[in-house]
Amino acid sequence: MVATAVGIVVSSSAMVSLGQGFGIAGPGFLIPMVIAMVLNLFVAFSFAELASIIPRAGGINHYTLPTMGPFIGMVSVLSGYVLVNMFAGSAEAHIAGTVIHGIFAPDVSPLVISAIFLIILSIINIRGIEFYSWSQMILTGGMIVSLVIIGIIGLTGTGSGEPLKTSIDFNSMGWGVVGLFALAFWLFVGIEFVCPMAEEVKKPKLYIPLSMILGLLIILVVDLIFGNAAIKYVPLNILAGSESPHVKAATAILGKTGQIWIGIVTVFATGSTINTLICSIPRMLYSMAQKGQMPQIFGKLNRWGSPWAGIVFLSSLFLVFLIGISGSASITTFILAGAFCWMITYIVAHLNVIIMRVKYPNAARTFKSPLGLTFQIIGIFGIIYMMFNIFPDPAVKQQIYMYAVIFLLITVVYSAIWVKFAMKKKLFETTPIEELLKEGSDSSEGYITLAENKNKTDVQG
């Protein structure tokens, strides 16, 4: 669970954001980093409380059914996870192909490498949660340990490179450093991807909150080590303007060895991110199909207890979008537009906690967000602030908003039509929480959890 929490967040694009953030603000980037980590900690608190009440693979969708109904739940999943990760997952696969091509296999097309990479990860996930867990621990462990070692070598000055002679002010930007808040937020976003595995992990009501909190702390420490090492060896303006600042930093610290090493780390980061996407999102679609919110094919499980249709569907989307990714200057705009939708999903999570406290005050909770609803209210206002300050360039910001509106319109129209005509329900018709909890323990209703299916398969085997 910790490997999932860390692996989805520390992606290749996040390492670029880290390097650019330290390049723009120097050591002062610590300020927006800590604030962003705290805001994501509030998100973790909300998701942990919701998962402790409704430990289902549907994640945010199932948390929203008893509070705001199926329409809001579908929009949250489709806009906040499926659409944004069409672009993010494809971009990550493209990065892996480019890095492997540039450092290890110059004679092989990056597109072919990326496609093979995606197919291997898809097969791992189709084979079951055990294969996923081992691969995720190897990818995330190798990535985190490597970043820490390279960072410590840089901080101690024991690498083959020559540290810079100039001194750097802690925060030369002053209050302007707050403008990097949204950039820092990206270093921690996605920690809630552990929730869709609630039906398979042991003791989910304990390990879900624990893994998210530990994941955030690990990410903060590792990013601070590597980021401060980077600015010790690479001029700030070069880091700020680079498309691969982490590669420049590792190369400056360890020379050619650092370049090869960080290339491997980049592949591990991309692998752990895509691996988690292919694992978690199909489980959301699986539970939605069980509730009639998606085509029934997504509710089918294979002999290893994996939602194979969702895995094949998502991997196919990655492959399709991967073909058009190369050379696309607008991919960052697309990803940030998806991020805007992701932020809306986080607001929905906070609202779910608030409504649950009012509507179901006596519902069993093994984890409860501290200090009443303080963190949810602060979290909502903090996210709204980021949505209004998602990018410093006004022209790019306008494009981000335009694409975000398009994404939302697509999911709103699809969800409204599906709920009204396929499910034949009112858009905001809520499901009693007792019904959701009963379904998880009584498969006679037609709802079979991933864990129950896995147990049946083991017995038959």
Automatic annotation (TrEMBL):
Residue stretches in coiled coil: none
Signal peptide: none
The keyword Phosphoprotein appears for this protein: no
Phylogenetic placement of the source organism: Bacteria, Bacillati, Bacillota, Bacilli, Bacillales
Transmembrane segments annotated in the record for this chain: 29-51, 63-88, 108-126, 138-155, 175-194, 206-226, 260-286, 307-325, 331-355, 367-388, 400-419
Any GO molecular function: transmembrane transporter activity
Record keywords, A-Z: Cell membrane, Membrane, Transmembrane, Transmembrane helix
Name of the protein in its database record: Amino acid/polyamine/organocation transporter (APC superfamily)
Membrane topology: Multi-pass membrane protein
Compartment(s): Cell membrane
Classification via InterPro entries: AA/rel_permease1, APC_superfamily
Pfam families assigned to the protein according to its UniProt record, in alphabetical order: AA_permease_2 (PF13520)
Main location group: membrane
Domain of life where this protein originates: Bacteria
Species assigned in the record: Scopulibacillus darangshiensis
GO-annotated cellular components: plasma membrane
